[in-house]
Every structure is written in C-alpha cells, then in structure tokens.
Amino acid sequence: MTQEKREIVIPSQFLGDTQQSKAGRGTFVEQGKIYSEILGILNKKSDFINVVPIKGRYDPIEGDFVIGVVEEAMASSWLVDINAPYPALLHVSEVPWDVEFGETDRYLNHGDSVMAKVATVDIERKVNITLKDRNLYKINGGLIITVEPSKVPRIIGKKGSMITLLKKYTRCRIFVGQNGRIWIDGDDDNVAKVLHTIKKIESESLSFGLTNRIENLLKNETQDVQ
Amino acid sequence: MKNDNIKLFRDGKRVDGRATDDLRPIKIEAGVLHRADGSCYLEWGGNKIMVAVYGPREAIPRHTQNHLRAIVNARYNMAAFSVEDRKRPGPDRRSREISKVISEALEKILLLEKFPRASIDVNIEVLNAEAGTRCAGLTAAGVALADAGIPMKDIPVACAAGKIEGQLVLDLGKEEDNYGDADLPVAISPRTGEILLLQMDGHLTFDEFEKALDMAIKGCNKVSELQKAAIIQKYKVELEVE
User: Fold this and answer.
1) B residues 192-221 near A, CB within 8 Å?
2) pTM value?
3) How far does the CA of residue B99 sit from the closest CA of chain A (Å)?
4) What ipTM does the predicted assembly reach?
5) A115 with A135: CB under 8 angstroms?
6) Considering only CA atoms, which of B54, B52, B126 is closest in space to residue B83?
7) Which residue in B231, B232, B241 is closest to A207 by CB distance?
8) Which stretches of chain B score pLDDT less than 50?
9) What DSSP line would sit under B20-39, residue for residue?
10) Which domains does chain A have, with CATH numbers?
C-alpha cells in the first residue's frame, strides 16, 4: 500500500485516459476517458484506476459470509434481509435441518438472525444464501450492530489482524459479516469495549497505522481493569 | 401578470440589489440526516430544502419493478408552512408535475442498469419557498444522491433564467417570478452539457430564449462548483483524523 495521501473523488470526476490506464471498479468510460461513478477514495493499482466507495449498500458477491435477518417464512424457503438492495432467498435444501414442507416457521421465523454464505447471485441480482458451510448457524443471544459495508475490510484488518486483536483483548466472540453486520457475544463490559473500539475504527477508517493505535488503546484499557 | 405599480429595476440593479447575472446566495450541506442513505440541506436565497435519498432497495409494489433497471421515485413536497398563506398539504397537480420532471431528469444520469428491480427514492421537502424551488430541489437531490453512494454519471444541477421588464436576468427572486414576463428553469449535466430538464413559463422570443438558456447554463456551472465543494467538505474531515 502506498503511503500517499488518500484522495476523495466525486461522481463525474475525470481520472485518466484509457490509453495510459485501465478503468477498474467504481469507474466508467466515455469517449476514451475514465470518470468516477461514485463518491469514494481513489486507488491506483498497477495500471488500474479503482474507486473504493465510502458509502453505499452492500453488493452481494458469491462466497461472502453475511449476517441476515429473516423477514418471512414461506412454504419451502425463507426471505432474509442481508442489507443488500434485495432480500435473499434461503431454501430448505440449504439448511442443515430436515424441514417438513410448510413447517419452515418452526425453525426460523420473522426476526431471527442467521450467519449465512452467499451461494449464488444471478444476472437479475436474485440472491440465494446457504447455511451449509462450516460455522454457519442460527444466532442465539449476543448483539448485532450495523456499520457501513465499505468499512468492513478495516474492521477485519489485513489477514484478520484487527479482528484477532479485538478477540484477544476482549475475550468476546465476534463474527463480521461482509454486509456490514457484526455479531458480538461476551460479558457486558467486554461487549461495551468492543462497541467503543469498532466506533473508533469506523470513524478513523481512512487513516494510516490504525491497527497499531487500536492495539495500544486496547492494551491500556485492559491494564486499567486489572 | 404585468403590474405597473411594481418596479423590478432601480438604478440598473434588481429589487434585491443584484446585477442581471448574479445568483442569490447559496449554502449546501451534505449528509445531514442519519436515517437516510444520503441527504442534503440546501439554502438558495429564501428557499430552504431538505432532501433524503433511500435505496437502491426492492421496488414496492412489485408491479412497478423493472427487471432490467432501477426505477427512480422522486417526491417533491411543499410543507404547509413553506409559503405565506398555508399550503394545503398533500400532493397536488403542481407538485406531481415537478416530481415527474425531476424523476425523469435523474433517470438520465443515474446508472440504473446496475440495480434491476430496485427503486431509488428521493424525497424533496420544501421547508421554505421563495421562487425556483424545482431548481433548488433538483440541485439538492444531486448532492444527496452522491452522498448516498449511488453510482451516477454526473451530479445534476439546475438554475433558472427569466425576463423581467424586458431584460433577461439570472435566477429569479420572488417578486421577479410573480411580476416578471418569463421564467426558464434549466437542469444540465455539467460534465457533458446535456440538458436534463427544460421548462418555460411566459413568453420569450427565439433570440431571447437562446440568450436566456446560455445564461442559465452559466448559472448551473457556478452552482455545480458549490455542489462539489459541499460533498468534498463533508468527507474531507474523515481524512484529516490522523
């Protein structure tokens, strides 16, 4: 990663020519010129020009782990809100339980939360999710908070460095969904500490050396308690 | 609409002291509401406008969905207390027309193909009205859409020109709108110069029309700079925390 100052770009801002660089994510090309299509941070990687969004809805991608809230139990499937533009479909064949036809509401009902994986996204943006993977189950207890989906990579950190820190210093169970929902379970003091830290990460997500600063913060706080 | 008792020019200046090609003072603030995906508060002379953008989200009712692209629902609404006399609340003929033309203007610049079956809802609330609310509303909607992180080709901007006492002027004020000869609101896409909205009230000759259009487009470009500055201002702060 370059240590240059991060630059904010706004929609329609001119970013470069197609002859010199390639148009990456968050950009569009008109008459050989590359423009930004969203509000975001400019990111140049090799000869690609990308714009990383600051805000916006979660865009489901196959294989993402997400936290969903059940909206409706239908005869042989559930509709699950995953914070995307469209609700996702969870079919009975995609859950680890043996569900009789018409008895879906005995297993998951309106308001229940699940950890799930995005199974497929078709061209019409119809999303299917599945519970058939390791560590995917219905959530019991704990707390779910919502952050901007664009900040999720910062909360996880490089190769999970940030999330490992959080788990180590607070002894909480944490699951971060790619859709910006985070599940936290632990005793009250520690959960409060996690919430406080995540808020800090979110507000300073664009600065450099964040992981080190958060580590110091957590270290100090743990000493205070002892 | 002519009224001989009211003079709209004094010593070559307009009632509020502006020259013919001056805009009223404009203040734009992005991201003011927490519940909305994107929002904007705009003051343009005496106009005070709040815009909240929601979406893209699944379009409801279902029969309005388009399985190839998203639909845009702009809703222009004037508050009961926004005008001198009480405005009867609820949609009327005028506000439905404005909602429609603003929706159509926004459809041209948003990248709707990315969100099939979805809707993008733009709520434009006029808190205080003083001539040129549709221009102000569309300008604020542009900022709010960018703030919501919705992909778009350009930030739309609008500005009006008109004729008062036989002279062409930019950005009509309240008296000028009420007692003037013509009003020409124009919305453009500032990057390409494409016209997104063009309406006319009153009469202009063809020459006057061309001049007024040029004038309005120049005004739009000025406002566009303010829009961009407002968006950057909001997010610059996050970068500076270090």
Assistant:
1) none
2) 0.89
3) 23
4) 0.86
5) yes
6) B126
7) B241
8) 242
9) TTPPPPEEEEE---SSSSEE
10) 8-53 (2.40.50.100), 65-130 (2.40.50.140), 143-225 (3.30.1370.10)
